[in-house]
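Predict fold of Leucyl aminopeptidase; 460 aa.
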Amino acid sequence: MPLSFVSPTESAVPLFLIGADDLDGFLATRSDDDKLWLKANGFSAALGTVCVIPADGKIAAVVAGFGTEKTRARDRFGFGAVRAKLPDGTYALHTTLTGEALEEQLLAWLLSGYVFDTYVKKSKSSVHLVAPESIDVGRIEAIAAGEALTRDLINTPSNDMGPAELEQAARSLAHAHGAEISITSGEALLEQNFPMIHAVGRASPRAPALIDMRWGKAGPTLTLVGKGVCFDTGGLNLKPGASMGLMKKDMGGAATVLGLAKMIMALDVPLRLRVLIPAVENAVSGNAFRPQDVLTSRKGLTVEINNTDAEGRLVLADALALADETPPDLLISMATLTGAARVAVGPDLAPFFATDPKDALVLSAAAAKVADPVWQLPYWEPYESMIEPGIADLDNAPSGGMAGSITAALFLRRFVTESPRYMHFDIYGWNPTAAPARPKGGVGQGARALLAALPELLSL
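Predicted 3D structure, encoded as tokens:
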């Protein structure tokens, strides 16, 4: 099903989106036959419900329930549940929603059309929607396309999504939007001083790489850094089978920044964009990096390895050090970094850290407007000592098991010394249970919130 709207047509069937509180008012405008039909079908405007109104053997109209304020708060994107329940055809939306509330539900409609069918062909319906004329449909379609890219990349299994395939995805995106791209891979990583990216990826036969994409000629500068661990065995600190089962999504940070980059470029946001992705596979072989090794980073900081399964922060550190050498106006990293973040806020919220309190407020406000929930966690200074092992400048896996997301963020912040504003996201990148517009599987987190916040964050 296409992630786009269609042009108005006289044959489009009216689709009324009605909240439970507005049902009586809507019924007052309908014929007696329609009232009886809706009553006979038990239509109460519950969220996601649908009632087809027939006339002369055809569909005269469809009424979709939008529930109550309480049910909508518990299940955002409620309109997305409607699409799969409609017969094939073209529908014209009629609703009292306006502005951001309407845009959210129209995005829900598009995202509900996402299907990952690379490996098994699924039957596709032919359901189309005419959006209200007041809406910038091009913007919503661009956002949906960016989210679809993120989902596709995460959902693709690691045998078909290694560092080379992630590189190709970035190259395709760059080509589509006229961006420049360069790749440093294999032994060249050592020659170009990316020692920790090389150390994490060297055990795999699939060469590690650093992807560097640039777009835009004028405006403020934004650098996005995404963790691209295409599969994480845990290295010599091997994960148990249950923990390894979802590790194809460990490149979710890279997938999310590529999705956000696609949105930015498609919408021609007036800024200069740079995307950095350290792409590796954390594998096991005789040359794998070991517990108790001490690595020297691009920044010059030494890192004691106390767990080879804390590899994401290592590859991000070298990429962040590179970004920091040409300080952007805003630097953002995104990574599926710690289980601690999941324990703290679950899979639905995207925890983030910000060196500038104003940035945190702007992002949180934007996230609420576009239904892309985030939650700020602190750079808690008293925990700095937890990442200082004594034998080296930094410890990649402090003992004790407490404040894991915070200590990881503090670790990354050590590699950002010149950039004035830095934000880090510790995302999950996976929807464990199906929900309206969000099928089980890969999902973007924080990208739409950042896109909405960029005008204020960068004074565009």
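The chain has a mean pLDDT of 97.
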